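EI: anyone free to look at a 483-residue chain?
SC: sure, send it
EI:
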Amino acid sequence: MSALTESPSFLATRRGKLMLALLCLVAFLDFVDGSIVNVALPTIQHELGLSVSTLQWITSGYLLTYGGLMLLGGRLADLLGRRRVLIAGTILVGAASAIGGLAESSELLIGARFAQGVGAALMLPAALSILTTNFREGTDRTTALSVWGGTAGLASAAGVFLGGVLTQGPGWRWVFYVNTPVCLLVLAVVPFLVPDDRRNEIRGGFDVFGTALATGGLMLLVYGLVQAPQHGWGDVRTILQLGVAVVLLVGFVLNERRTADPLVPLTIFRVKGLAAANLTHLTLAAGMLAMFFFVTLYMQEVLGYGEFQAGSAYLPISLTIGAAAGVTAKIIAKTGTRPLIVAGSVISGVGLIWLSRIPTDGSYLVDLLPPMVFMSVGLGVVFVANTTAANAGVPAEQAGLAAALLNTGQQIGGALGLAVLTAVATSHTASQLTAGDAPLEAMTSGFQLALLIGGFITLSAAFIGLRTANSRGEEAAAIPVAA
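SC: here you go
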């Protein structure tokens, strides 16, 4: 570790500020890519002549590789060097984005989305572990993690806004093109800001069998969840996919208990509150991230908003998340993370339940903006506080793994929530149509039920949050863990 990173005020230095800005730019890029394409999907479908089943893979392809390969990406960052893995992932995302923008066929476009997900699975845990190993002092690390957590919450809303602006402006292809210059910027400055932590050799062996079990299990789990609403939860394919995924993941845990060089050393869960923080993140994602999907559909399909109008509707939400994250960063040292996780989860859940009252003839200023802004306050608070809690006390040599665990939970939670709530909304809409409701009324009723259930799922994160570490940003004692 350089002398700069050991100083008591690295964040106060020019290099520290620039490094934090760079790492948050990486996080923003990866999180935005999960939502920026959503508003553009109808335009892409029309221009390329895609079926609905093919169209879903533009979103699901990214989610599948991003969530499925995150653990591998985090462990590679710890073993091979975080800067090296960050650069590799950035090159892949930049190239895949350019190819996606140029695509004239569904096969090439979907392939580019798969490749984007692989690159993001390398970039994100590498970037977060660079943050946690360079900003090591109490105040600096708390502030840096707070900014990172705020960026994660901000990006989900900003992605929808940017997608609408780009689709209705220069065209849907710029939803992909915009990534490439950002990636070039990252590649240009990484060598100057990020210390070279390249490892000359991997200590011990590499858990090839465990990697295969974890990657296969996670990818099959995400795939099964994504496909479940289409095929049905009782369909043989769904049951087999999810069942095999569970078997692979159980096998992975058993393998990790016995192997000398595990992909995920289970002793990392001795870090106080880490498991609870990861489960909290998963639950929040399950309840909250589907909101952007349903509200965007409601605005476009029920209220008749265009791409730009639907995207712009999220701008106040983005600003609110950013403001709430900034305030949270300043008060963590006084309150600790646990009260903020609980309060943020409750506010977000209540806001989502309030949002579930949307009517068929709704008004943005009356029915959408107030609950979305209220919910965004909680979202900004809880993402910052829980990200800080999930990294408290993690040994430096496992920072990449801790980052990967947190973000894998978010991706799995998002996939699970979207799959379950989509099935709920679709089923309820169908039953309302059978009962004689008009199509728009039936569709709105389905959205209402999905948002209501999502609100209660989000509220449940408050109870899990009670088990997280109440970190105030101080550096906890490192627990000896095999690398």
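EI: The first helix runs from residue 3 to 6.
SC: 👍
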